[in-house]
Amino acid sequence: MKALLTRKTIIIATIAVLIAIITIVSVNVYGSGGPITAFASTVSRPFRSMATTIARTFESIYSSIYRYDDLQKRYDQAISDIYRLQRAHRETTELLDENNRLRTLLEFKERHGGLILEEAIVQTMSSSNFVSSFTINKGYANSEKPIARGNSVITEYGVLIGRITEVNANTSTVISVLDTTFSAAAFVGEGDGSVTAKGDFALMSEGLLLLDHFDDDRIVLPGDTVITSGSGGIFPVGLVIGEVIDVLRHSTGVGRYATVRPMRAIDMTIVDVYIVVSFDATG
To answer: Given this model, what pLDDT does residue 4 score?
Structure first.
């Protein structure tokens, strides 16, 4: 193949040289292009046409390459602008979320002026068929306010999510409202006195807790909100625990019970929490 191409190249070059010589001679003899030049022009026309086609093809290729480079630069700039706008949007959204969270917390504190809070962050979450707990980054050595076992742990909306059971130097363990060892006196529906909201072994895997043993005189309906009553002085009055899902009758036929979904899902989406260090027990 290489030899063939070489032979073709030599032939084409030879023809080109002959045409040039003939043209020069014709001009000198006839004082113009003459028949020889006309013949040479006719013979060379396909070559000139081929050269023109090749030149136009290279010009088109060059133009396409230039346009591609220009489009690539514009594309790269557009992608850069999109990333910059996305980053700005994310930062703005985070600022708005933080502002809303702080405003909500302020409103909650204004409604419950007797609460003293310590902010904390959830570090780990532990969930199994037997335990529902999480660890926060505050202990007796690194908190601004003294925290202790039994302190309630809430969200900025005043939703009760657990209670501290162990305090270490820089961390504390919190059992969630789903844990089988959790219980709180609560108000729900229409009726006098409080009932007990507590974790239940059978319901924990479903993300529910139990509102146990209330009589027929109390009107409890699905959708009712369950809040702490403050009875016993363990929890402040008015912390939201959850929402009634179902109201059922015990198999013995005596009394009823309800399943309750926590107002805040107990999962790894919980990040910022607040420890109720102290509160006004009179409500």
So the answer is: 42
